[in-house]
Amino acid sequence: MGVTMNEQLAAGSGTSGILLAIVGVLVVAVLLAAFVWGRRIKAREPGPPLPEQQPRLPESGPVGDVVESREPDELVPGEQRLTPHEVKGNGTASHRRR
């Protein structure tokens, strides 16, 4: 007797199931290897700084804030729109506050 279509499909599903299981095991192995590799790299990094290694305030005290005020750049109505490189200056005046 010849092989029917159902017998061919049944034989193929066993093989594809084994292949899927092998692929699944390989994916899990790659993920575990990546995790172990990442842990080894993390273990080689230096630890967090000690409290005495932290930055300190200067003896003169904290540095003052920088306050900027922007001045509008007046445009003449009816002119063409300006591109950023055509605008004069940046219109920012810096002031230091202590």
Explain what the structure shows:
- By secondary structure, the chain is of the alpha+beta class.
- It has a domain of 32 residues.
- Helices cover 41% and strands 12% of the residues.
- It has a two-stranded antiparallel sheet.
- The mean pLDDT is 78.
Structural class computed from helices and strand pairing: alpha+beta
Question: What's the number of helices?
Answer: 1
Q: CA-to-CA gap between the ends?
A: 99 Å
Mean pLDDT over the full residue set: 78
What is the makeup of the main sheet? 2 strands, antiparallel
Overall 3D geometry? flat
What letter string, H or E per element, gives the SSE order?
A: HEE
Instruction: Trace the largest sheet across and list its strands.
Output: 1-2
Percent in helix: 40-55%
Please tell me how large the radius of gyration is: 35 Å
| Share of β-strand residues | 5-15%
Using DSSP, what is the number of strands?
2
Layout of helices and strands, plus pairs?
Elements (H helix, E strand, L loop, with lengths): L4 H40 L20 E6 L21 E6 L1
Antiparallel strand pairs: 1-2
List its traits.
98 residues, two-stranded antiparallel sheet, 12% strand, Secreted protein, transmembrane, transmembrane helix, membrane, DUF6479
Produce a short descriptive summary:
With 98 residues, the protein is an alpha+beta fold.
